[in-house]
Amino acid sequence: MATARTEIVGPVVMGLSKQNGQLRGQTKPASVQPAPTTQGKALGPPQKAGNAPQDGGGIKFGDDWKKSLQLPPKDNRVKTSDVTSTKGNEFEDYCLKRELLMGIFEMGWEKPSPVQEESIPIALSGRDILARAKNGTGKSGAYLIPLLERLDMKKDHIQAIVMVPTRELALQVSQICIQISKHLGGVKVMATTGGTNLRDDIMRLDETVHVVIATPGRILDLIKKGVAKVDKVQMMVMDEADKLLSQDFVVLIEDIIGFLPKNRQILLYSATFPISVQKFMLSHWAQICVCALSHLQKPYEINLMEELTLKGITQFYAYVTERQKVHCLNTLFSRLQINQSIIFCNSTQRVELLAKKITQLGYSCFYIHAKMMQEYRNRVFHDFRNGLCRNLVCTDLFTRGIDIQAVNVVINFDFPKNAETYLHRIGRSGRFGHLGLAINLITSEDRFNLKAIEDQLVTDIKPIPSSIDKSLYVAEYHSTSTDCDVEEAEEKPSRQQDST
């Protein structure tokens, strides 16, 4: 039997407050590589001297300023055509500020992905955009790069707003924005979400703020109070636009746009849609376009959604009874080579019960759901992202946009009810064209949903085999396959398989 990567950490001690979502073993933390939110950083062991990338991302010999860049270790993991099917452009081709290029390269972003190639030059021209691209293919960079390039540092007012549907995504996007802009000198980025101290936000807006990343309810509240001055905003971005233009948020979005100047630029990015995916091209996207087109001026449309599921994610299902689920999960932990895993449940109560059960089995585990205090949610999100724990149990709160590169396994402990949720869940692995594994625990009640989701997504969810080839989801097995598509990698004989 293969050695477990999910480490048993000895007797369980519930040493932390139950509400903070951090349940872990007594002494030995999971040795997980930190998982930055960049699209290109390696997850393997630290790179040895002499292996640092010297010519990546269009860097040309002889440019002195590039010699001082603190580049991350080169990412040698296999990437799929979701991110490698590009036109061959370089970030330097877009005539970006040198200081912005420095931030891009130091993030480990070597070359633009397909959605970035399509978006960046159009956004820089000032044109509105409607973009559809898969989860984990670089949409954040597609709008943050032109947003930062167009900032005028001589002006001390809010120049850009990024709208996102969840608090965790707001924190993630703001961190990426801060990292990319660190060499620009003086870019002020503010994240504001519900569940945090309103007074702190009001005091922050008394100072200079150039970019606001926000959830709709909080920024609208600040606008109506006269605290957030948005009458000079030149760009508004809607990330996860299908959610923001759903019934939950659309009225708030309409109100926010009403406060913006008429000549503002609007960029919409989305991946999935809540109506049956079979009909989404003609149905839900048409509804979004009707809503968006009332505010957009001759938008440029980008559609990179010829297929919906990420190429690098292998999907399996295990047919079990409800009582067998925990035992099955324990078996998966013992046989899979997990770097980090996210385990989804359909209710907050089941999240807490499962997290407790996992710690009783001897594995370190965090949990997160919408009913937790925001302080605890932030702490869990930060600590899991930095690799302090190997397993995270959560609700669908954690499905949209969250980018944790170290996650290579997603487990649907409870199978989702619709294709949209399923697609967002499994998209937490296989980020930026890398490999991942999605395993679904299916009961007799789930079998019809399984077939319906397979049909709607035009994908194949296979029965779980007795052994799973590690090359399907473990980065180290492809560490020498730089710039090789996963389709090519899968043709090679597997080097090793799990034994059962």
Can you walk through the features of this model?
The protein is α/β, with parallel strands linked by helices. The protein folds into 2 domains: 18-37 and 310-489, P-loop containing nucleotide triphosphate hydrolases (Rossmann fold, 3-Layer(aba) Sandwich), CATH 3.40.50; 81-303, P-loop containing nucleotide triphosphate hydrolases (Rossmann fold, 3-Layer(aba) Sandwich). Helices cover 31% and strands 14% of the residues. It has helices at 64-67, 81-84, 98-106, 114-124, 139-149, 167-180, 198-205, 216-224, 241-244, 250-259, 284-293, 325-335, 348-360, 374-385, 419-426, 447-457, 486-489, and strands at residues 22-23, 129-132, 160-163, 189-192, 211-214, 235-239, 265-270, 300-303, 313-319, 340-344, 365-368, 391-394, 407-412, 436-442, 462-463. It has an 8-stranded mixed sheet, with helices on both faces. Strands 4-5-3-6-7-2-8 form a 7-stranded parallel sheet. Helix 4 packs parallel to helix 5 (139-149), helix 5 (139-149) crosses helix 6 and helix 8 (216-224) runs parallel beside helix 10. The protein is globular and about 60 Å long. A motif (Q motif) lies at residues 89-117. Residues 17-40 have a biased composition (Polar residues). Pfam families: DEAD (PF00270), Helicase_C (PF00271). Residues 312-472 form the Helicase C-terminal domain. One of its GO terms (cellular component) is P-body.
Fold topology:
Elements lengths: L21 E2 L40 H4 L13 H4 L13 H9 L7 H11 L4 E4 L6 H11 L10 E4 L3 H14 L8 E4 L5 H8 L5 E4 L1 H9 L10 E5 L1 H4 L5 H10 L5 E6 L13 H10 L6 E4 L9 E7 L5 H11 L4 E5 L3 H13 L4 E4 L5 H12 L5 E4 L12 E6 L6 H8 L9 E7 L4 H11 L4 E2 L22 H4 L11
Parallel strand pairs: 2-7, 2-8, 3-5, 3-6, 4-5, 6-7, 9-14, 9-15, 10-12, 10-13, 11-12, 13-14
Antiparallel strand pairs: 1-11
